[in-house]
Design goal:
single chain; about 160 residues; mainly alpha; 7 helices
Length: about 160
């Protein structure tokens, strides 16, 4: 195992600043993932062709990743976090009893797992889920942790 880590470090040292993707930054990652979502979920115009259309599962995974990048980037990307806050406040405001962020996280996970959604709605659900899961903590914080750790390993910070 140690040999693999040392090999990876040696290979990464050959890239600019030790970063595999160069200097992307979390804002650049947010822009790139937004482009993937927009291009991957749009229907082609009449007579147009699409090289690759995202499936609903792929759209929700890219949505969660994009939502995490939005939170890390800050600045103009805070809309995803605001959307997550608004969604979770509907359920945690007392109208549904003593529902916490863990309950809202469970609701989003159930919707994402059990419903076949259109790719656009799946992407939006993923973006909302990223913010709610990050706030809920516990096991729900694992996707954010994995995404940010992977992004850090790739040189996106």
């Amino acid at each position: 195992m140690i040999e693999h880590v040392e090999l990876a470090q040696t290979l990464a040292a050959g890239f600019e600043g030790g970063k595999i993707l160069g200097s992307v930054g979390s804002g650049g990652l947010a822009i790139g993932l937004t482009a993937v979502l927009v291009a991957g979920i749009r229907e082609p115009k009449k007579g147009g062709k699409v090289r690759r259309k995202l499936s609903p599962t792929e759209a929700s995974v890219v949505g969660v990743t994009a939502g995490t990048a939005y939170m890390a980037a800050g600045s103009i990307w805070t809309t995803g976090g605001d959307l997550s806050d608004a969604f979770s406040s509907v359920f945690t405001g007392g109208a549904f009893g003593t529902a916490g962020l863990g309950g809202v996280s469970l609701l989003l996970a159930a919707i994402m797992y059990f419903r076949e959604m259109r790719p656009g709605f799946a992407a939006l659900t993923g973006i909302v889920a990223a913010g709610v899961w990050a706030q809920a903590g516990g096991i729900w914080g694992l996707p954010e942790s994995v995404i940010l750790t992977t992004a850090g390993a790739l040189g996106v910070s």
